[in-house]
Amino acid sequence: MGAHRVVVKLSGEAFADPDLDYGIDPTTTKRVARELAEVQAAGHEIGIVVGGGNIFRGLSAAASGMDRANADYMGMLATVINALALRDALEREGTQCRVQTAITIQQVAEPYIRLRAIRHLEKGRIVVFAGGTGNPYFTTDTTAALRAAEIGADMVLKATKVDGVYTADPATNPDAEMLTDLSYLEAINRGLQVMDSTAITMCMDNDLPIRVFNMTEPGNIARAVAGEDIGTLVH
Question: Structure pTM?
Answer without folding.
Answer: 0.93
